[in-house]
Design goal:
- By secondary structure, this protein is mainly α.
- It is built from nine helices and no strands.
- The protein has one domain.
- The chain starts with a helix and ends with a helix.
């Protein structure tokens, strides 16, 4: 089951990322961005970055290359952190962002793959094969660096690019107070998912140990 989830997640995730790239870049350039700006725009979404991280986790566990940066994605801390982050992608999109736009055609397909299919497959894979009881409560502080760093990037880029990747980060339209509340709410949700992940990791490890006995 773990192998099936890993291969399926990797294949469908790559399809989603490549498809999204192929339809986003032309649409972005038609909207007036240059090719480099369009590429930056594509990689400015938390969803894209997190799905890329999930694919790197899968590749790191199936690749025999000795690249240290790639093998770092195979570490227990990284696997669990990506599981938390991609679960956040699914929850925030399903509860907040999905109602804000109605994609059609290939946009709808990539939307479903990257926001629903790959998150579910990755979390299931992590529970089945990735969790091994080696996460620590101190890992949460490391996992937090990713969303906090992303938030800082998105807010710093906004006045330069004149756009934000997500409407709840638009200080010019919503005000700093509203953006701060949204950021704190999502950070709180992320922390809750971190706690659940550590507890689940230890519980799954104990269950596997009991089954072996």
């Amino acid at each position: 089951m773990g192998r099936f989830l890993q291969v399926s997640g990797l294949a469908l995730g790559l399809v989603g990322l490549v498809l999204q790239f192929c339809i986003t870049i032309p649409a972005s350039m038609e909207a007036g961005r240059s090719l480099p700006a369009s590429i930056v725009f594509y990689f400015s979404f938390f969803t894209i970055l997190t799905n890329v991280a999930a694919m790197l986790v899968h590749v790191s566990l199936t690749s025999s290359t000795g690249y240290a940066w790639l093998q770092a994605f195979a570490a227990p801390r990284m696997r669990a952190g990506v599981a938390v982050s991609i679960a956040l992608v699914l929850i925030v999109y399903a509860t907040v962002l999905a109602r804000l736009w109605h994609p059609q055609g290939l946009f709808l397909l990539s939307d479903v793959l990257l926001h629903y299919v790959t998150p579910v497959l990755f979390v299931l894979w992590w529970l089945v094969s990735g969790a091994d009881g080696r996460t620590r409560w101190s890992d949460i502080s490391w996992w937090l660096l990713y969303p906090v760093g992303y938030l800082a990037y998105a807010l710093a880029r906004a006045p330069i690019a004149g756009e934000v990747p997500y409407p709840f980060l638009d200080v010019a339209r919503n005000g700093a107070g509203s953006v701060a509340i949204s950021a704190m709410a999502i950070t709180g949700l992320f922390l809750l998912l971190c706690i659940i992940a550590v507890l689940a990791d230890h519980r799954v490890a104990r269950a596997k140990a009991s089954a072996v006995r």
